[in-house]
Amino acid sequence: MAGLARGIHLVAIWLFAACAVVQVFLAGLWVFAGADRFALHRDFGYMFSLLLVVVLVAAIVGRLGRRQIGWVVLLMVLFVLQSVFIAFRSSAPEVAALHPVNGFLIIAVAVVSGREAWGSWRAFRRAQQTPAGALVEEPGPAPIG
């Protein structure tokens, strides 16, 4: 079960990172193609945020440890901040301007998390392919005599 969860985590975190890049494109589309594209940017953002739940559950079930779970929690906090920053667009545009900066931070954290997930996946697969006895055998002291 842990192996399956780790695989799901790996795929979901990279899918999340890819969706975040698409989200930046959709923001550009909104800016350059017209305000009628805002709903596409907004709705896609809310939709792919559901991947974070999958990523978090898979990290927990896959026993990926505090660090990987911490990256997901950080992504969740950053994702919530996206909506908070936008809420300030009328009253404090300087705060709202953090929205795109935070978007790039989300991508960066997702990529770092994805790289670590890839490393965890590879280590897990190597451990699965190594014979059980090979893990226990270590060279001991030379025999006396």
Architecture overview:
The chain has helices at 2-33, 38-48, 50-61, 65-87, 93-96, 98-129, 132-136. The chain is mainly α and 145 residues long. The termini are far apart.
Summarize the structure.
With about 140 residues, the chain is mostly helical. It is about 80% helix and about 0% strand.
Q: What is the subunit organization of this protein?
A: single chain
Our estimate of the beta-strand percent is under 5%
Note the total helix count.
7
Number of β-strand runs: 0
Indicate the radius of gyration in whole angstroms: 21 Å
Mean pLDDT over all positions: 90
Helix content: over 70%
Q: What is the end-to-end distance?
A: 49 Å
Structural class of the secondary elements?
A: mainly alpha
Shape: elongated
Q: Which sheet architecture does the biggest sheet show?
A: none
| N-to-C series of helices and strands | HHHHHHH
Uncertain regions: pLDDT < 50 for 5+ in a row? Answer: none
